[in-house]
Specification:
single chain, 495 residues, alpha/beta, six-stranded antiparallel sheet, five-stranded mixed beta barrel, 15 helices, 21 strands, globular
Length: 495
């Protein structure tokens, strides 16, 4: 009760008193997932809310964005649409052994899919604007000029200044371009989602989820794809066993992997972009995608003028309630570089609104957050990886795995295995982590996330009746321990 009282005493006052002194109770800079959630919920609590966002365009810059933010306009949503499109490539191949007589030549129309994708993000952009009907929306660039003052530069250059009792920064992040000769010839994920011409020869640089997803997308649509990454396996930070399965599946689908490799130079030629990598590798591509990380959008916010602290990457430093070192200024989402996922930004925005305007002290809980990598087939995880469990363990760890050919592939003949895994605390029987690489993994993992959030034990998994025939039932039929790892201290991996 003490922390709640302290927080509310620090920030909470009556709306009437705040509005008398300020133009707004809350002004939000950035109308992406976190900003829109915080604005809407704060307004529902009775706050007078202003929010600003840059003008709409599918490809972002320092002065272009759009209501809906990265996820809706140039991230999760358009990416998933392209993943759906790419998945049909393999499905059509698999259909032949199910009796579908298909012509030998199958044509893929990239421009048609791109048009449908753009229609959908425009529709969602409009919906997000409607969601802000209880807030005052400004189109323009926002920056902070005082602890309680925001300036919005409109499209015509007009500058508007507003005071607010609370300011929330929710400006997200943008793709990072590494220093490399010829890097201006390459594209980022923004442009990759809006390419006018389909790249028949694609090079992807990076080992993170964006890199493996785009490699899967373009390969599924018929391109030749080369994926370069610095480590031995892609997806650093995920379970090592799962990373190995993803790498095997990418290769099995025809993607050329170049582990422990970095690009050194890009040169424009008549035949395309000449790509040079270390180890003497050279090839020519129609498109080179740099998927080498993202950086917080904090540079143009004028933070130094009011003393808001940022780290070396530009991420805004916040406490457990998303509050900066300036009591009236808060930040949520990717700009804080905590856990950069859309649903996490939504959680942070919700907790902010509850704490500041709902009279309920609420801080985000980052435990057992599920996530997915939409490569083909996808990887999805919740809780601890095997390596994390070993590192954090006080006692022995039990690992249960199941590797099998999905029923569908026994007919189609596709040589691709699904892997499922549970990591269990031997002493308490609590399930610490679950992971899966295979068809429908994210849909299955969302349900398991609830179980882990509730503290489910392996015995409870075992006592659950499975749905048959399904892949998901394997999670409740893993009876034999694959391996037991004794508590011997920290184990690090550098794969």
């Amino acid at each position: 009760m003490g922390s709640r009282k302290m927080l509310i005493d620090g920030v909470h006052g009556s709306g009437d008193e705040a509005t008398a002194r300020f133009d707004f109770d809350l002004f939000v800079i950035g109308a992406g997932s976190g900003g829109v959630r915080a604005a809407r919920f704060s307004a529902n609590y009775g706050a007078k809310v202003g929010i600003c966002e840059l003008p709409f365009h599918p490809i972002s810059s320092e002065v272009i964005g759009g209501v809906g933010g990265t996820c809706v306009i140039r991230g999760c949503v358009p990416k998933k649409i392209l993943v759906y499109g790419a998945t049909y490539g393999g499905e059509l191949e698999d259909a032949r052994n199910f009796g579908w007589e298909l012509n030998e030549k199958l044509d893929f129309n990239w421009k048609k899919l791109l048009h449908k994708k753009t229609e959908e993000i425009l529709r969602l952009n409009s919906i997000y604007k409607r969601l802000l009907s209880n807030c005052k929306l400004f189109e323009g660039e926002g920056k902070i000029i005082g602890p309680n003052e925001v300036q919005v530069t409109q499209l015509d250059g007009t500058k508007l200044t507003y005071s607010a009792k609370h300011i929330l920064i929710a400006t997200g992040s943008r793709a990072h371009r590494p220093d490399m000769v010829g890097q201006e010839l390459a594209i980022t994920s923004d442009e990759a989602l809006s390419l006018e011409e389909f790249p028949k020869r694609a090079v992807v640089v990076g080992g993170g989820y964006i890199a493996v997803e785009f490699a899967s997308i373009w390969r599924g649509m018929g391109a030749t794809v080369d994926l370069f990454f610095r480590k031995e396996l892609p997806l650093r930070g995920f379970d090592d066993e799962m990373r190995a399965v993803v790498a095997r599946n990418l290769e099995g689908r025809g993607i050329n992997l170049h582990p422990r490799s970095c690009l050194t130079k890009l040169v424009k030629t008549d035949d395309g972009i000449k790509v040079s990598a270390d180890h003497g590798v050279e090839l020519v591509a129609d498109a080179v995608l740099l998927a080498t990380g993202r950086v917080p959008n904090s540079k143009r916010l004028n933070l130094q003028a009011v003393g808001v602290e940022v780290d070396e990457t530009g991420a805004i430093k916040v406490d457990e309630f998303s509050r900066t070192n300036i009591p009236s200024i808060w930040a949520v989402g990717d700009v804080t570089n905590r856990m950069n996922l859309t649903p996490v930004a939504l959680m942070e925005g919700t907790c902010f609104a509850k704490s500041v305007f709902g009279g309920e002290s609420s801080k985000p809980d980052y435990s057992n957050i599920p996530c997915a990598v939409f490569c083909i087939p996808p990887l999805s995880v919740v809780g601890l990886s095997e390596e994390q469990a070993i590192e954090q363990a006080n006692g022995d760890i039990l690992v249960y795995t199941s590797t099998f050919t999905p029923m569908k592939y026994t007919i189609s003949g596709r040589q691709e295995k699904t892997l499922m895994k549970l990591v269990v605390d031997a002493e308490t029987d609590k399930v610490l982590g679950a992971s899966m690489c295979g068809p429908d993994a994210p849909e299955i993992m969302q349900g398991l996330a609830i179980a882990l959030k509730c503290g489910a034990t392996k015995a409870q998994f075992d006592s659950t009746v499975g749905i048959h025939p399904s892949a998901a039932e394997e999670f409740v039929t893993m009876r034999s321990v694959t391996r037991r790892i004794a508590a011997t201290g920290n184990i690090k991996t550098n794969l």
